[in-house]
Write a structure and sequence with these properties.
Blueprint: E1 3-13, E2 16-25, E3 28-33, E4 45-48, E5 53-56, E6 58-63, E7 65-66, E8 69-70, H1 76-87, E9 91-98, H2 103-116, E10 123-124, E11 127-130, H3 152-162, E12 166-171, H4 178-187, E13 191-194, H5 201-210, E14 214-215, E15 226-229, E16 236-239, H6 242-248, E17 253-256, H7 265-275, E18 280-282, E19 295-299, E20 302-307, E21 310-313, E22 316-320, H8 327-337, H9 342-349, H10 351-356, E23 374-377, E24 383-388, E25 391-393
Parallel strand pairs: 1-4, 1-5, 6-9, 9-10, 9-11, 11-12, 12-13, 13-14, 14-17, 17-18
Antiparallel strand pairs: 1-2, 2-3, 5-23, 7-8, 15-16, 19-20, 20-21, 21-22, 23-24, 24-25
Helix pairs in contact: 1-2, 3-4, 8-9
Amino acid sequence: MERIIFKDGNIVLEEGIRRGSVIAEDGRIAGVDFSGSGDSGAQGRVVDCAGKYVGPGFVDIHVHGGFGHDFLESSPKGLVEGINYHFENGVTSITPACLSVPFGGIERAIGRIKEIKDRTKSTVLGFHVEGVYLDSAYRGGHLLSYVHAPDPVEYMPLLDKYGDFITEWTLAPELEGALELIKACTKRGIVTSVGHSQATYDELMRAIDAGLSHSTHFACVMGNLRFECLGESTGKGFAPGVLETVLLEDRLTTEVIADGHHLHQGLIRLAVKCKGYEKVCVVSDAMMGVGLPDGEYLIGGQNCVVAHGLAIIKERPEVIASSVTPVIGMLRHLAARCGIPLHHAWMMCSLTPANIVGAGNKKGSIRAGKDADLIVMDRELNIRKIYAKGILHESGRGRPPVA
């Protein structure tokens, strides 16, 4: 059992950043020492972290691909390489996601991810189904021909086969049959999330009562303030849409794509102000083009153009198609441009997403007993070392982490 002492660093904790040392043993965090001695008498291999941040590894619960590989279509080797790209940028736990495709393609993708999960540097927590059961008018980057109402003939066999591996299902709760799917997922411990939806307040509240607990990429393809009749009169008033209900309802968590393109910084601040950093997580929503030069890439059967840090659908240039920014770039954006304290921003990238998918008992923060998934960064938030369960992995295999 190897003991590692991450000595004299700026330790990123839920409550703040404190100078001290993290002690890891046998792949788990044994404790944190603030005495100044650095190890409380413990013996072991010392990692000098003076002047550097030591924080928990990132947890990305919504990501479609990486470094030229799509998590829906790639070969086993490509899936491993794509997941490892995100690890090299600090993501020590991950849930790959799909877009809307024929249902058999979703099943095959889940099976391939499950097969390779023990070959990746990141811990694969499960699979995020984002697709098919979405509102056609709010489909965003999903192909119209694939989205439709929930069909138990489709989803029940998938839940029976992979219910223990699916962590999250994004859906539009206003669709006929959505409540039954929410209940079926909740029964199996799968998080259901409102996304690509224009549900009314009442429709969303019924979904929450049925077990829905999360919302996908806040404000993006998300219905907002409604102008409608509130009574029997023909006169119209204003009612909350999905966006306002997400901010209002304490039972819902949400996620932000903090790449500077999907959301204005004011909307990110609004979400955090209304819900607290404990209920707002960062997701990359990254596609296969992340980490690669500008050019054309595929996502969900559609050609996308990547240029200047932004991916758009070639045939629908008003539509952003996922992001090409890894979580580390989003952490920098939150801290530098959104006015969010660094330790809160870091938790939005680690503990909050871990808690949302039920992995917070092992992942996401520096606490005794949790996995020693740790990132060592310099003061400019450049990654210097990444540890997964106490094992050092050099970042980037020669490539610097991407902003």
